[in-house]
Amino acid sequence: MHIKKGFVLRKMCGEYVVTADGLDLVNFNKLITLNDSAAYLWECLGEKEFDQEMLAGLLEKKYDITKEQALKDTISLCETWKKLGIAEE
Q1: Do 77 and 87 form a contact (C-beta atoms < 8 A)?
Q2: Among 24, 39, 51, 82, which one has the highest count of C-beta atoms within 10 angstroms of its own C-beta?
Q3: What is the pLDDT of residues 38-84, one digit of tens each?
């Protein structure tokens, strides 16, 4: 899986927001906000390929949580990102 090209994370008014840059053909009529942990993962990824296990490992290290909790959270996050069209396999 990877973040689709053209989407960037910005910090606006204290919130992390994903916006589209230069995507003329995309109907992007809303902002996507990320919480601190999702923004942390986004920043770690850059243009790298990733999977739920990799993201879970990053959360485990950063937040000192169990692998089970981290994996549950990253599965949900990946499904959300795919549904919103900002990540793809």
Answers
A1: no
A2: 39
A3: 999 999 998 899 999 999 999 999 999 999 999 999 999 999 999 99
Q: What is the DSSP string of 36-79?
A: HHHHHHHHHHTT----HHHHHHHHHHHH---HHHHHHHHHHHHH
d(CA 67, CA 50): 17
Q: b or e along 66-83 (b: 16 or more beta carbons within 10 Å of the residue's beta carbon)?
A: eeeebbebbeebbeebee
Q: Under 8 Å CB-to-CB from 48, ≥6 apart: which residues? A: 2
86 is written with which tokens?
């900002």
User: What kind of fold does domain 2-88 have according to CATH?
Assistant: Arc Repressor Mutant, subunit A (1.10.10)
> Domains of the chain: which residue ranges?
2-88
Q: Do residues 88 and 79 make contact, with C-beta atoms less than 8 angstroms apart?
A: no
**Nearest partner of 46 among 5, 11, 80, 78, judged by Cα:** 5
